[in-house]
Amino acid sequence: MPVSRGVYSCENNLGLAGSVYQCYRYCSTLDRLKEAIRRKRPGLLRWGVVLQHDNATPHSANLTQQWLQRYGWEILPHPAHSPNLAPSDFHVWTLEAPFRRHGFRDRR
User: Fold this and answer.
1) Residue 89: what pLDDT?
2) Taking a C-beta distance cutoff of 8 angstroms, is the pair 15, 53 a contact?
3) Contact, 16 vs 22, CB < 8 A?
4) What is the pLDDT of residue 57?
5) What share of the chain is helix, strand, coil (3-state, %, to 5)?
6) Contacts for 67 with CB less than 8 Å, ≥ 6 apart
7) Dihedrals φ, ψ of 31, to 5°?
8) What terms describe the molecular function in GO for this protein (predicted)?
9) Which of 32, 33, 25, 34 is nearest to 63 (CA)?
10) Residue ranges for the chain with pLDDT beneath 50
């Protein structure tokens, strides 16, 4: 039987690094993602979900790991410093550097 895989992207601005609040927010985001998958692709939850995220504090926290284990979601390892995943993440600050020395006036 053919297996269909989808890629879902979920990004959040979670606030201060290392806070417990971040972990609850991330689990809440996962709850919303699970509900969206249930509504839009119900069979996917039965076949299993493979999630890829980095090792940021909310992703590696015990609370998050318990959530993932409870629902049986598999984690696909995130390669460290991979330019293939999000090239802009690695170059955006370099692109900004030349403009730091210049002041720009509003044209209004």
Assistant:
1) 57
2) no
3) yes
4) 83
5) 50, 5, 45
6) 27, 30
7) -60, -45
8) nucleic acid binding
9) 25
10) 1-4, 6-9, 11-12, 14-18
pTM here? 0.59
- What's the gap between Cα 6 and its chain centre? 15
d(CA 55, CA 77): 9
Q: How many domains does the chain have?
A: 1
Q: Answer positive or negative: Cα dihedral of 12, 24, 69, 17.
A: positive
Question: 82 and 55 in contact (C-beta within 8 Å)?
Answer: no
Residue 87 has a pLDDT of 57
Q: Quote the domain boundaries for residue 36.
A: 20-81
